[in-house]
């Protein structure tokens, strides 16, 4: 690998605000760069974003490639794809990371296809390992319908590209004394940029407390069979002031929204306390909260895999234990 700006991170901004998932991804890029004695560069696209470029340097980037134009204020899929692809062709980074937001999962495969490289999506972790006496990027993802955790490596074609789920990495510390270079990149719209255009973006308020950023999350799994049982989970979350999450069966039953789905097809989070109830612990679920500081699991199956990873396991029927927990919490 080279030692000059070898790790790039695309930084997403909306309405003048840097997205947390991008800053977390920047944190992962900084972590990887330490193992490679390399540098981290960011790519920032939008309008009136010069102040954000300086902010990104304060978060740890060594350089920021800044592409500013009124026509780029909103995400424009073709324009963003062309801009990033041309920058890759010109500067040849070794690694390009993107946050796995709704926009990131649209942009990343388009860029990868254009520069003809591989992409690993929704990574639950990224590490540098030595393989054949060379440093190699290794991605961790849930595989085979969640039956196992799979490690993926890239071939020799670069850049190695990956999207990183929210909650996988920590947002770096902000240091206003940091210095770095802001490289302004000229942009001129081409016909291909204008074939598909975003004219408006509307963001809706979440229906319930978001699981991202919540200090405590209570999550219900496949073992919950009725509305009454899930109401117990909801009551426990309420008395704890916690966010309410769940697995795919809970989402299919419409007990939670897609926004609060935990796991490989939903959110990756790192709360201070995660309480899992009625979920056996398949890999596609547990990958969503592996970095929680403390994990409590309640399940009536003594052989449930989740008991192998939790800090405190309670083998019990949720109808017996959860009402007691609620009563004790209310009286304390």
Written description of the protein model:
- The chain is of the alpha/beta class.
- The chain has 2 domains: 7-194, HUPs (Rossmann fold, 3-Layer(aba) Sandwich), CATH 3.40.50; 216-331, Rossmann fold.
- The chain is built from 8 helices and 17 strands.
- A 7-stranded parallel β-sheet has the order 7-11-6-1-4-5-12, sandwiched between helices.
- α3 packs across α4 (104-115) and α5 (227-240) packs parallel to α8 (318-331).
- The protein is elongated, with a radius of gyration of 22 Å.
Keywords:
8 helices; 332 residues; 5-stranded parallel sheet; 2 domains; elongated; Rossmann fold; alpha/beta
Give me a quick take on this structure.
By secondary structure, the chain is of the alpha/beta class.
Secondary structure class reads: alpha/beta
Provide the domain count: 2
Overall shape: it is elongated
| Radius of gyration computed on alpha carbons | 22 Å
What about the largest sheet?
Answer: 7 strands, parallel
Oligomer designation: single chain
Number of separate strands: 17
Helix content: 25-40%
Question: What is the name of the CATH superfamily of the largest domain?
Answer: HUPs
Low-confidence stretches: none
Instruction: Please trace the helix and strand order, writing H or E for each element.
Output: EEEHEHEHEHEEEEEEEHEHEHEEH
Q: From the 3D coordinates, which CATH architecture of the largest domain would you assign?
A: 3-Layer(aba) Sandwich
């Amino acid at each position: 690998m080279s030692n000059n700006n070898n790790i790039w991170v695309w930084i997403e901004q909306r309405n003048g605000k840097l997205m947390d998932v991008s800053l977390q991804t920047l944190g992962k890029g900084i972590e990887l760069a330490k193992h490679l004695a390399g540098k981290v560069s960011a790519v920032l696209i939008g309008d009136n974003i010069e102040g954000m470029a300086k902010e990104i340097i304060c978060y740890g980037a060594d350089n920021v490639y800044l592409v500013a134009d009124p026509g780029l204020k909103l995400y424009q899929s073709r324009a963003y794809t062309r801009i990033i692809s041309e920058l890759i062709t010109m500067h040849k980074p070794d690694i390009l990371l993107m946050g796995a937001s709704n926009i990131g999962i649209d942009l990343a495969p388009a860029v990868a296809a254009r520069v003809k490289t591989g992409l690993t999506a929704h990574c639950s972790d990224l590490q540098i390992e030595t393989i054949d006496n060379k440093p190699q990027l290794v991605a961790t993802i849930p595989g085979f319908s969640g039956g196992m955790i799979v490690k993926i490596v890239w071939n020799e074609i670069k850049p190695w590209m990956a999207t990183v789920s929210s909650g996988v990495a920590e947002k770096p510390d902000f240091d206003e004394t940091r210095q770095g270079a802001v490289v302004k990149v000229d942009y001129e719209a081409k016909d291909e940029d204008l074939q598909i255009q975003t004219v408006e973006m509307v963001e809706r308020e979440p229906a319930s407390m978001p699981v991202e950023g919540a200090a405590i999350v209570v999550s219900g799994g496949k073992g919950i069979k009725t509305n009454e049982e899930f109401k117990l989970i909801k009551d426990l979350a309420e008395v704890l002031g916690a966010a309410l999450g769940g697995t795919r069966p809970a989402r299919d039953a419409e007990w939670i929204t897609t926004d609060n789905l935990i796991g490989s097809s939903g959110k990756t989070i790192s709360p201070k306390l995660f309480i899992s109830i009625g979920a056996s612990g398949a890999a596609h679920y547990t990958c969503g909260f592996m970095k929680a500081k403390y994990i409590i699991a309640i399940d009536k199956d003594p052989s449930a895999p989740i008991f192998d990873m939790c800090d405190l396991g309670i083998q019990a029927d949720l109808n017996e234990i959860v009402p007691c927990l609620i009563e004790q919490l209310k009286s304390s």
